[in-house]
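Reviewers asked in the last cycle whether our approach scales beyond single polypeptides. To address this, we selected a multi-component target totalling 1124 residues and predicted its structure end to end. The input consisted of the following lines:
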Amino acid sequence: MKARVTVTLKAGVLDPQGQAIEGSLKGLGFSGVASVRQGKVFDLVLDGASEEEARIAITQMCEKLLANTVIENYAVEISN
Amino acid sequence: MKARVTVTLKAGVLDPQGQAIEGSLKGLGFSGVASVRQGKVFDLVLDGASEEEARIAITQMCEKLLANTVIENYAVEISN
Amino acid sequence: MTIPNDTAITPQLVADHGLKPDEYQKILDLIGREPTFTELGVFSAMWNEHCSYKSSKKWLRTLPTQGPRVIQGPGENAGVVDIGDGQAVVFKMESHNHPSFIEPYQGAATGVGGILRDVFTMGARPIAAMNALRFGAPEHEKTQHLVSGVVAGVGGYGNSFGVPTVGGEVEFDARYNGNILVNAFAAGLADTDKIFYSKAEGVGLPVVYLGAKTGRDGVGGATMASAEFGDDIDQKRPTVQVGDPFTEKRLLEACLELMATGAVIAIQDMGAAGLTCSAVEMGAKGDLGIELDLDRVPVREAAMTPYEMMLSESQERMLMVLHPDKEAEARAIFEKWELDFATVGRTTDDLRFRIRWHGDEVANLPIKELGDEAPEYDRPWIAPQAPVPLATNDIPQMDVADALLKLMGGHQLSSRRWVYEQYDTLIQGNSLQTPGGDAGVVRVEGHPIKALAFSSDVTPRYCEADPYEGGKQAVAECWRNLTATGADPLAATDNLNFGNPERPEIMGQLVRAIEGIGEACRVLEFPIVSGNVSLYNETNGRGIMPTPTIGGVGLIPDWTHLARIAFAGQNQPILLIGAPPAWGTHLGQSIYLRDLFERKDGPAPHVDLVHEKKVGDFVRGLIRAGTATAVHDLSDGGLAAGLAEMAIASGIGATVSQLEGYDPIPVFFGEDQGRYLVTVALDAQSEAFHDLLNEAAVHGIFAPWIGTTGGTDLVLGNARPVAVADLRSAYEGWFPNYMAGQ
Amino acid sequence: MKSAVVVFPGLNRDSDMIAALTKIGGTPPAVVWHQDATIPDVDLIVIPGGFSYGDYLRAGAIAARSPIMDVIRERSEKGVRILGVCNGFQILTEAGLLPGVLMRNASLKFVCREVKLEVANADTVFTRGYTAGQVIRCPVAHHDGNYFADPETLARIEDNGQVAFRYADGTNPNGSIHDIAGVFNADKSVLGLMPHPENLIESAHGGIDGRGLFNGLLDAVA
Ligand SMILES: Nc1ncnc2c1ncn2[C@@H]1O[C@H](COP(=O)(O)OP(=O)(O)O)[C@@H](O)[C@H]1O
Ligand SMILES: [Mg+2]
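The resulting structure, written as structure tokens, was:
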């Protein structure tokens, strides 16, 4: 079972990395960039679990570790 | 125009981040985790460009800045 | 003996392994049959320039490597030098040039990781690091990206590992456009009776693999490091090695803990050509064979071939020979630190290097010959021609104040703060002098007043003009920088970065530079105890400047008498100790000519080694006696730059106006060697001051009183006063502005 | 006064902190490995700086989820003082023992230099070695020290005197909101700060401004 967790900053939370990248992109001449926000992805491989069980486990992983829910949102996508 | 760029490590490249997270998840009792690889996402907002133009621009951004193509792959997804 | 082999060994495959036809013939003669693919890989790793030193060995042997304090010279993972009280300093410098050009962050990071491992493999806890960096011209399209990646990588690894970076160098020159240099230095502290070596002892003992798992990282890397770059670099690219400082930190703690148990008989880190080099070295040094079972090697990826496992350059790995009765204890330590621990082989008495995999023997080679019988070349060389002296009437003029401001705000002399503020310079709590002075200084943990000084130096443009003088100068400048803090220079490590040795002009540079280094080390009693050679630093047939970086270590018996470069107060006389009668004379190869007039002509400055030693010993005496209040040696940019650096560091100005009747340009910008600026807290009219001048004269040292500190301007002769504040903003401005793209 | 230093794998300023506590307090602290089941009876628990678990997920995130943190939380509830410096601060915020988060420096670069700190609240056991408004020197060395909190949290900690130190005289090295360099929990029994007072406690360090923190603390709980 494979899954991808995407963790992004909540709206309103400062994103120094995104800002710096936005600045660099403009510096490189990409004038149309209105905003950049940076986040993380985690590609997980899970041993033998049903999609249902996997989703529950991954949600717990996000709550407990993968995301800092004070400032971050997460989304879980399960493939096969 | 919104776009998401996902940057992941090429196969075979060591991922110390992923390894540390994998270890931590196991320590937290998530025994079914077979592997974790960490990557990045960039959520971009672009001013007035066609999807075609946006895709070309973003590909250039990836090549030039967003991805380190020596060790990373990237994927571009454009929404609306 | 037959060993199954499914890969045909073609001349092309041999060539792809960097082996010349006659070298391959030598392999056939040695083993009496065609090598297997894995064996070919093993030979290519052991016999390439990087591991075998085949072009340089003949000349390296001429270097002085002994001294009363030397415990271990070249030949081990790092040199070991006695610092008294039962302790030793363990140090080495190593290059990671090619990987850093391909992937600057990871290349530099793994360079730092590699050198730290060399040091703690010997049983020493790392206490200081330096990095000598050379990039292409600032305006070259790749330079800024490479600077930011390399500096982030050096910091990323060293900071996380937890070693203070206390010094280094950064230079820019178009000759490094396609081939940057990243030379990393590390030093550690160990008890003299607890040094660990790579020589295996005892038959039938377990060979144990420790640390991180093996992946396909850098397979072919050592071969690449010994090949020229061309435009097809992308095709040659192996999987880039990624550094994992967290694992390295655990490896350090686990190794030191394990060493303390007495379980370790021999230890070798896996560097270039990982498992191959480390296993062969341990066996060959101990006159033992080694048998490896690759099925037991911890791997990170599925379906790795023996060839890949033997040549993998995955980082953060070690190989040890352990006392069999301590194996369980050792395993427990590694498990505590969550590191891999696997017994992968044993020592044998048959002097063979055997590799088993999936029940087959995939290699069976004579272990001594793999190392000792590596080809050694006496490559043809031609002595370079020394440039003609500058004509006496050929000194381009410029306003002294303008020239100084321009130079202090230029790429060569400006502050490296942008770089070293990305490095943790304070961790471990022992840093007495962080970057920005002549040498970094850390106190010896646990000792009330002892400290160690570190400096890294070379002036490639001098080496290019005259490799012999340049080699001498690199050693002398390093020795001088250590002396300027009050340290006794103890010993040095050298990192010889050159172009393609198969070209006689380049080989000539290497030979002459080594001769110069050797001469300087002998006269200054500053032996070379470790080092590294990096050749083939060329892109499309154009070599880098010859760059023999010297990393030196000095001992300060009492750090309460540590000299710094900042002027210490107002109204203090300034002496120029070691000066020629006209203070400064030599403009050949100077920064003044190069950076203000785009001229690279004239001879390199001459280093009078006997005079150098005498002057340095005298200056050190003034520091130890508490007479000197500030000390700075003169190097790039001469007297004017030296004074400016002392003023900027303190915010105190100076007036230097005692010399009349000389052309101010050579006086202020000449790069004559062997000179120091020293201030003293004495009244210039006092008897004590005159005694001091007399003492210098008695030693045959010209030490003119050239001016006095004070005020907020630097006044050089008849030139217009320059505000120290203006000098500082020029000095501090260049690097951040450049990196911000301005 | 008894103290303990908790060490996670990857921390590297533990020896600096142990040295400071020993030199100033006179007795060495107990050193607790993260896998130890318990912490000895002490008045002060310190989490020093470094890169726990490489800081590979978010700075301090993995250490903050270790079982030993439950012990620290319990002790904190019983009134034991908790100090986190640098990575220790990041761990305490990730563990929810302190408000806010520490994000990547605005420059995106690691920064090691000396800054000025203003003592924002000197009326606590941690900061009583200083006077309110006093400006001290202190080194920083970090990659993720950019303090951030949402507007309500920020207002609450400001109103409640929970800001311990602020970067002063334009020396904010990382973009922290309100120049915040260190914060307390609501009852001021837990302090986290990014700068390293333990690296400025003796003449060899070029100054002793960092001593105030240890002096005040050691006197208070002595
Ligand atoms: N890459 C670097 N890392 C750390 N410190 C550096 C680096 N480059 C230069 N420095 C420091 O900046 C100062 C000036 O360097 P340099 O001009 O090479 O000194 P010197 O002329 O005394 O050899 C020195 O203190 C040196 O250690
Ligand atoms: Mg110097």
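Strands of chain A lie at 2-9, 33-46, 72-79. We regard this as preliminary and will revisit it once experimental data from Aim 1 are available.
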